[in-house]
Amino acid sequence: MTGLQKFAFDTEFDSAGGVAFQAPRPKTHFTPEEVEQIRADAYAQGERAGLQSVNAAQARAMAEVAAACRQALPTLAQVAHEHRLGSAQLALACGRAIADAALTRFPEAPLQAALESLARELEAAPRLVISVAPGLADYVQEKVGNTVAATGFVGALTVRTDGSLAPYAFTLDFGDGAAAFDPQAAAERVSAALEAALAAEGLHAEPLIPGT
User: Fold this and answer.
1) How far apart are CA 46 and CA 36, in angstroms?
2) Residues 17-39: pLDDT tens digits?
């Protein structure tokens, strides 16, 4: 059963028949000033409603953009990581090519650098045996003689060939100490260290674009 609604009369009379209450009648005639005010109020109300609708649409759009960015970030981080890996591998390949060309042109350069860094140890050594890859003994004997003398070494110097050494590799034996260099092993150590650093960094590296 529905509830009863009290009926309201527009006009009520008292016991003497006089008008006790009369509801105001809707206004049907307006002055130009009133019409202008009504128009301005309606325009303002419509403008507010339009702005609210636009703001709501903007908020929804921004929320959708933010959601899309959150979904894209893992993919972007993976792409950036793969870019770093590719750049590192390219840099290593370029470095190896340059190193190979330098060793071909100056095969004695690493040996001279090693002798200079070991100058103090060689100064008091009674002998120095340099072992190099096949085909380089005579060349090295000629090129490093002055370098050995500059270290202060006055002992017996022997340069010999060792067939077990890789191209451009060498060993130094100076009695109380020894040193060795293998270009291929050195390149592999650099590559392993770089790969380990990139793996540890993973997807948490600094952004490719500063400030992002």
Assistant:
1) 15
2) 665 656 666 666 777 787 788 77
Residue 78 burial by Cβ neighbours in a 10 Å radius (0-12, 13-18, 19+): exposed
Question: How far is residue 57's CA from residue 5's CA, in Å, rounded to a whole number?
Answer: 41
Could you tell me the two tokens for 50?
A: 């339009």
The whole-angstrom separation of Cα 8 and Cα 10 is 7
Long-range contacts of 116-122 (CB under 8 A, 24+ apart): 116/147, 116/150, 116/151, 118/151, 118/172, 118/174, 118/177, 118/179, 119/150, 119/151, 119/152, 121/174, 121/176, 121/177, 122/148, 122/151, 122/152, 122/153, 122/174
Q: Please name which of 171, 179, 103, 104 lies closest in space to residue 133, comparing C-alpha atoms.
A: 171
Compute the distance between CA of residue 171 and CA of residue 182 in angstroms, rounded to an integer: 9
Task: Give residue-wise pLDDT tens across range 174-207.
Answer: 888 888 999 888 888 888 888 888 777 765 555 5
Coil/strand/helix, residue 22: strand
Amino acid at the residue 72: A
